[in-house]
Amino acid sequence: MATVLFVEASGAEHRIDVPTGENLMRAALNEGLDGMVGECGGGLACATCHCYVEEDWADRLPAPAQTELDMLECTASERRPSSRLGCQIVVSDALDGLVVHLPAAQY
Fold this sequence. Notes:
Blueprint: E1 2-7, E2 13-18, H1 24-30, E3 50-53, H2 55-58, H3 66-72, E4 83-85, E5 99-101
Parallel strand pairs: 1-5
Antiparallel strand pairs: 1-2, 3-4, 3-5
């Protein structure tokens, strides 16, 4: 299990204990956080789980696959170097303390 800090666009912060093996999209949806939609259910088909991983953590995550990079071209909010899809980040103990910012819009 890892504790992940989700920061909504409003600035509201939520520390969530996320079970190992669960992805960030599912964790945020289970908590009802604003800024995470996950319309395709994690099928890598919609980009509505777009999020920003704090730069300090970007190098600790597996590199995004080409399909994720392609979907990131379709985000409603600005794409940044720290942009990722929450459905593609699977939580492990090594991600304890991860900080993720949610965008203002997914559509």
